Amino acid sequence: QVHLVESGGGLVQPGGSLRLSCAASGFTLDYYSIGWFRQAPGKEREGVSCISSNDGSTYYPDSVKGRFTISRDNAKNTVYLQMNSLKPEDTAVYYCAFKWGVVTTTPPQPWEYDYWGQGTQVTVSS
C-alpha cells in the first residue's frame, strides 16, 4: 500500500529557508520520477520542480530557479525540496508526487503523476 508523508512546511519570513521532505512507503523510488507542486488559494496547481528517474536531471521554472533544489535519497525512500530566499509569492500548499518512468514533460503536469502526498502548508510572511 502506497503511503506518502510530507513534512517541513511552516511559517517563515521573507528571505528564509525551508526544507520539505516526502517519505514514501509501499513502493521504491528507483524507477519513479518525482515532482513537487504547489497550489495557492484560487490558483491552479503548478509544478515547481521535478527530477527524472533515469539520469537525475532536474527542472525548475524561472520563478524558483536558483532558489529551490530538488533531491532524492533512494536508500531512504525520501525526496526533498530545499527552498531558499523564500518570497511571499511562494506561499502555497506544497505537494510531492511520483510518476513511473522518466520525466517527459516540463514544466511537470499534475495529470502525469500517480501518487501524491497530503500537502504541507508553506507561508512566507513577515
Structural overview:
The radius of gyration is 13 Å and the shape is globular. Helices cover 0% and strands 48% of the residues. Strands 2, 4, 5, 6, 9, 10 and 11 form a seven-stranded mixed beta sheet that branches. It has 126 residues and is mostly beta strands. Strand 4 and strand 5 form a beta hairpin.
- Which structural class fits the helix and strand makeup? mainly beta
From the spread of the alpha carbons, the general shape counts as globular
Order of helices and strands: EEEEEEEEEEE
Mean pLDDT across every amino acid position: 95
Distance between the termini: 40 Å
Number of strands: 11
Distinct helical segment count: 0
Low-confidence stretches: none
Based on CA atoms alone, the radius of gyration comes out at: 13 Å
Task: Provide key terms for this protein.
single chain; 126 residues; mainly beta; 4-stranded antiparallel β-sheet; 11 strands; globular
Topology:
Layout: E1 3-7, E2 10-12, E3 18-25, E4 32-39, E5 46-51, E6 58-59, E7 68-73, E8 78-83, E9 92-100, E10 115-116, E11 120-124
Parallel strand pairs: 2-11
Antiparallel strand pairs: 1-3, 3-8, 4-5, 4-9, 5-6, 7-8, 9-10, 9-11
